[in-house]
């Protein structure tokens, strides 16, 4: 299995995973607001809601094995997943475009990228992903969907023409209600996508290959 060897990268990831593991109360406080009104991204402005270390290591290994260079991410948050993507882009001489709605999160994420020695390989865009990713380049090798899952479907429709044959789509929180239109679309087009459940943990993960 391919693993990250850069000491600054592994040190930063260790710190961020440790911080993320202790945020259950923060997530609960944000989620409680959803009982009184529709939940908003700003309700989770202080929460990582990040992928696990195991998920990050799996993604990094996959990117190295597939020699992925053109990498897109929806849902930067504080940058844990993006650091794994950036480390792979650094190894593959590639590039990452990632997008985050909240400016406050993006500022912290960018500092984390610098701490992890991967900032030169990451283009962090702030704002609505349906706008910030409109000019994403062609020949996308890998797409990570790990943001507000109501946007998964509009984003696949936006980026679909730019996904190269053999590209992978890694979708986190696939069991959440907002992800339903996305997964229904993917499964209704077997001529375009081969898809399967990678994990049922932490909201579920779907791994899809463009064919």
Helix percent reads 25-40%
Specify the overall morphology: globular
Radius of gyration: 16 Å
Tally of individual helices: 8
Structural class: alpha/beta
Intertermini distance: 25 Å
One letter per element, helices H and strands E, the order comes to HHHEHEHEHEHEHEE
Give the SSE layout:
Elements: H1 7-21, H2 24-32, H3 53-66, E1 70-74, H4 80-92, E2 95-100, H5 103-115, E3 122-126, H6 129-132, E4 140-145, H7 152-159, E5 163-172, H8 180-187, E6 193-199, E7 205-210
Helix pairs in contact: 1-4, 3-4, 7-8
Describe the fold and architecture.
The protein has 211 residues and is of the alpha/beta class. The chain has eight helices and seven strands; from the N terminus they run αααβαβαβαβαβαββ. It has helices at 7-21, 24-32, 53-66, 80-92, 103-115, 129-132, 152-159, 180-187, and strands spanning 70-74, 95-100, 122-126, 140-145, 163-172, 193-199, 205-210. The protein has a seven-stranded mixed beta sheet with strand order 3-2-1-4-5-7-6, covered by helices on one side. Helix 1 packs antiparallel against helix 4 and helix 7 (152-159) crosses helix 8 (180-187). The longest helix is centred in the N-terminal third of the chain and has 15 residues, at 7-21. The two termini are 25 Å apart.
């Amino acid at each position: 299995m391919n693993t990250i060897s850069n000491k600054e990268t592994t040190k930063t990831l260790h710190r961020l995973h440790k911080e993320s593991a202790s945020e259950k109360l923060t997530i609960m406080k944000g989620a409680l607001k959803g009982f009184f009104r529709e939940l908003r991204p700003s309700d989770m402005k202080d929460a990582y809601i990040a992928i696990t270390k195991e998920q990050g290591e799996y993604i990094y290994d996959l990117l190295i094995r597939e020699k992925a260079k053109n990498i897109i991410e929806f849902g930067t948050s504080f940058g844990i997943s993006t650091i794994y993507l950036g480390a792979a882009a650094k190894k593959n001489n590639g590039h990452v475009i990632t997008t985050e709605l909240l400016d406050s999160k993006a500022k912290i994420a960018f500092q984390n990228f610098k701490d992890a020695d991967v900032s030169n390989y990451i283009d962090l865009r702030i704002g609505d992903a349906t706008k910030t990713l409109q000019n994403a380049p062609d020949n996308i090798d890998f797409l990570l969907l790990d943001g507000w899952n109501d946007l998964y479907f509009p984003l696949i429709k936006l980026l679909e023409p730019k996904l190269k044959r053999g590209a992978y789509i890694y979708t986190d929180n696939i069991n959440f209600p907002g992800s339903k239109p996305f997964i229904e679309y993917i499964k209704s087009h077997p001529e375009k996508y081969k898809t399967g459940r990678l994990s049922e943990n932490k909201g579920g993960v779907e791994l899809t290959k463009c064919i």
